[in-house]
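__Record contents__

***
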Amino acid sequence: MLFLRMGPRLLFVRTDAVETVKKFFLEDLMGKETEFLMGMEEATEDSSLIFITDIYSTKTSVMDAKATVLVNEPASICLAAMINSHVAHLVERVDMGPSSIVMRTAGDTQGVIEEILQQYGGKALSIEEAVDEGEMGDTILFLTHKQISRRLLKADMFETPLLLPHPASRIFKKLRCEGILFITQSLQDKKWYELRINIYDAQGKYQEHYNRLNYILTQLEVGMVLEEGWTRDHALALFSVLAYQIRLFTLYKPDEMKRILLGLEYNADGNRWVDLDLYYRNKKISWVDIDKKKGKRNKIEECLKHRESILEKLSEEEKERLLSLEGKILEEALEG
C-alpha cells in the first residue's frame, strides 16, 4: 500500500523570448502546453511544470506565466537540456518553486492537518497561494483519501494543501517513518483491519484467480498481504474444502472489502467462476449483511454493480490487463 509519494517540481523560467523557449520545451522535451490546474492534475511525480515568464517580475507567481508547459521529465533533466541547448543564452533566470508531496490519509483528515501543522509549522493555503508564496526550500503537502499511485484530480485532494517551511527531503523522510501513525490516528476507531480471504475454485484455477485478485488489491492499494497459504474451509458441517487463504492488513472495513470480492466473483456475463469468502474475527461476512435492503434482492445484479465499481477505479491500461487475465481463464475453461 502506497501512502506517500513526491509530486511534480515547479520551474519558473524568465526570458524575453517566451515563444522560442516554449517551443524548445514542447519540441525537444516533448512537453505539452497547459493551464496551471490542469497541468497539476496531469503531472506525475516524475514531471516538471514549467512557467515561462518575462524578465520583469520581482517575485514570480503563477499569474505571471506567459506560457505553462508540462514536461514528463524530472527538473534536473529539464535544466540540463536547457543549459546545453540553443536557448540557454535566451534565459535570464531560473527559479525553483516549492517541492510537492502527496500523502494518503483516511478518516478524519482535519485531525491529520492539525497534527502536521503542529509538528512542522506552516499553514493551509489554496494551491495557487501555496505555489506563489512558497520558496525553493518549502514543501507543498497534498492530502487525499484516494490511492496515489495514479494521477489525481483537484477534486480528489483535500480542499487546501499545506505549505510547510521545510525542504521536501526532510518532510519525506519524516513522513515515511511517521505517516502510518497519522493515518492510524485519523481512523474513527484508531485501528486497521486484519481480514482473511479464502479462494475456492471447483475448476482448480487457484493460481489464475489468485493473480487476478492480487492484481486488483495492488491497483486499488487496498492494503498489505501478511501471509498466504493453503487452508481448509468448512463450507458445511462435517464437510470441508481446500482453499487458498490470504491474510490482509487493510484500512478497508469488512463491508468495503466484501464489495470488492463480490465484484470479482462473477465475470462480465454474470457467470460465477470463483468463491472469494471473507472472514473477520473468525466470522464469515455474507453478501446479505453488507447492504441492508428490504425486499427481494438479486445477488448477480448486485455483484455486477460491484464489478463496474471496480472497473471505474482502474485506468484503461489496468482494465485491459484485468480483462487479459480473465480472458486466459475463460480460454483455459473452454479448452478444458
Q: What stands out?
A: The chain has a mean pLDDT of 91. The longest helix spans residues 316-335.
